[in-house]
Design goal:
The chain has two domains: 226 residues, 3-Layer(aba) Sandwich (Aspartate Aminotransferase, domain 2), CATH 3.40.640.10; 128 residues, Aspartate Aminotransferase, domain 1 (Alpha-Beta Complex), CATH 3.90.1150.10. Helices cover 41% and strands 13% of the residues. The chain contains twelve helices and eleven strands.
Length: 359
């Protein structure tokens, strides 16, 4: 990316002069690299600013293609899916999930109207890591003739993804989820699918997304897509999270939420009895460990996580632990070393507070 951030490298890829053609070549190389990562043809890759934009574009285009048709989605979907579908003004049909956060394709089939605008299904959950039965979901949608969008933002780069082999109509991915730069994403649009653009005002991306392309970010997206090996990353990250979750499970009053077997390799969710998640996060942060929570006070949202609520899990006592492309065993050891002390101190403070407020 560094070369494309230099002075004089901001040529418009839509121009016919030499600089513009060089930028165009760089973008098309990145498109091929991203397509190769996710098992797609390069012409099926529409570059966006993020997976969030890609999800919005999928919902917008589906609503335009099937006006008034319902949007069908699992109770564990990301807020970008839920809110972009809701803005279409069409009915929202929600498929319930089990205690691990997984939807039932049979329940989807029983709920799915033939005139639905779009079915949304995430590849793997962003909070608990549970993998969804995407093959079964796509099969149900193909049988009913309903378009389907897969949110693969958490899956791409972490597990093997084959867009064309799966037969989905649309799929969203994000560069920064597997080591690429922020500000780059893509919507995969299956060959033959017509989709009205969300952003208009130009002919970029073959008239599927207007606006001058962010060449440095897209070059970085392609470089990350080339550098990552999903099969190797899956095994490496699974080793780290298995070690992390096993160590956490051995602590008293801590449980693992979600499916511990059929999950994304890099994400786990744990519940901690007796202390609020926000306090645990702050204690871990002081120890140099960054984690996340479904608690409303630990994010920009004012509401608890709808994913954990749908699972029947207490969001205020849940932590998301995850590993990335740079995480190693020493990082896992640091977390396992810090967490018992953080939890112990908070429980002791809670016990003293309860004693002091007693009769």
């Amino acid at each position: 990316m560094a070369a494309w951030l230099g002075v004089g490298q901001a040529a418009d890829p839509g121009r016919v002069h030499t600089e513009g053609r060089i930028a165009r070549v760089a973008i098309e190389e990145a498109r091929e690299q991203v397509a190769s990562l996710v098992g797609a043809r390069s012409r099926e890759v529409v570059f966006t600013s993020s997976a969030t934009e890609a999800i919005n574009a999928a919902s917008w285009g589906a609503a335009a293609a099937r006006p008034g048709g319902a949007f069908v989605l699992g109770a564990m979907e990301h807020s970008a899916v839920r809110e972009s579908s809701g803005r279409a003004g069409a009915p929202l049909l929600e498929v319930p999930v089990d205690g691990t956060g997984r939807l039932d394709a049979g329940a989807l089939a029983g709920l799915l109207p033939a005139d639905a605008a779009l079915v949304h299904c995430q590849w793997g959950n962003h909070e608990v890591g549970t993998l969804q039965p995407v093959e079964d979901v796509v099969a149900v949608c193909r049988e009913r003739g309903v378009p389907v969008h897969l949110d693969a933002a958490q899956a791409a780069g972490h597990v093997p993804v084959d867009f064309d082999g799966l037969g989905a109509d649309l799929m969203s991915v994000s560069a920064h989820k597997f080591g690429g730069p922020p500000g780059a994403g893509a919507l995969l649009v299956r060959r033959g699918v017509r989709l009205a653009p969300l952003i208009v005002g130009g002919e970029q991306e073959r008239a599927r997304r207007a606006g001058m392309e962010n060449v440095p970010a897209l070059v970085g997206f392609g470089a990350a897509a080339t550098a990552v090996d999903p099969s190797m990353e899956s095994a490496r990250q699974r080793h780290l999270t298995d070690k992390l979750l096993a160590g956490i499970s051995a602590m008293g009053g801590v449980r693992v939420d979600g499916d511990t077997g059929r999950r994304l390799p890099h994400i786990g969710c744990v519940g901690v009895d007796g202390v609020e998640a926000e306090a645990v996060l702050l204690g871990l942060d002081q120890a140099g460990v960054a984690a996340h929570s479904g608690s409303s006070c630990s994010s920009e949202s004012l509401e608890p996580s709808p994913v954990l609520q749908a699972m029947g899990v207490d969001a205020d006592h849940s932590l998301r632990v995850s590993v990335g492309w740079s995480t190693d065993d020493a990082d896992v050891d640091a977390c396992l070393s810090a967490l018992p002390g953080v939890i112990g101190r908070l429980r002791a403070l809670g016990s003293r507070g309860a004693a002091q407020s007693g009769p």
